[in-house]
Amino acid sequence: PQDRAKNFGDAGECTIDVTCPMGTGWKSEISSVCMISFSSDIYDGFCSGALLNNTFIPKKSIILTANHCSCGHSAFSSTILFNYQMVSCGSSTTSLSSEFWLYGAQILVNDGIDCSTSEPTSSDYLVFELNEAFASADALKLKGIGYSGWETSESIATSSSSTYISISHPSGDVKKIAKSIVNGAISDDPY
Questions:
Q1: Can you tell me the distance from the alpha carbon of 172 to that of 187, in angstroms, rounded to the nearest whole number?
Q2: Residue 67 CB: number of other CB atoms within 10 A?
């Protein structure tokens, strides 16, 4: 895995440690967010992803991230890290004892960017399944890792005044949360 120390503290000021009060009420979603490390001859970098809830029995360990993260990479050589966050709000110590590393995955579906030109083609998504046998739902639950879900109601997505929450590893930093309140029309522009 890459040296995370060089990315520690790189997140913008608009993001706050998930262990601070803004993270209250988002525990399940926070626990589902992971950092994905990709490395190749072309690009080294980090992206955020989320472990998705699904209806498979037994539950599959499926991650959603952005397809542009995989340009020049093989998902099989990715490293996935859960629970990389501060121990408490305002702390300078990460939760090393509860971090959980997984290696490799199989791409299930992706779309969204022409990696040769970096031009968007449509939505920018990548869905992959973790390879590890110990990435079972029970094993992940024992590590305090949860699943994210989604809302299918259009009224939420098109509301004229909405609050949006983002939980991520901005710039490869520890897990952060941000809140945005949008008043007015929602743009159809995907960027």
A1: 28
A2: 22
Residue 183 three-state SS? strand
d(CA 173, CA 15) in angstroms, rounded, equals 10
d(CA 28, CA 51): 11
Nearest of 176, 164, 178, 167 to residue 10 by alpha carbon:
176
Q: What is the residue whose two structure tokens read 């926070």?
A: 30
Scan for tokens 């029970």, then name that residue.
138
Residue 96 and residue 87: Cα distance in Å, rounded?
Answer: 9
What b/e sequence results for 52-66 when a residue is b if at least 16 CB atoms lie within 10 Å of its CB, and e otherwise?
Answer: beeeeeebbbbbbbb
Residue 184 and residue 90 in contact, taking contact as beta carbons nearer than 8 Å: no
Threshold 0.85, pTM exceeds = no
- The string of pLDDT tens digits covering residues 9-58 is 667 677 888 999 999 999 989 999 999 887 665 556 788 999 987 776 66
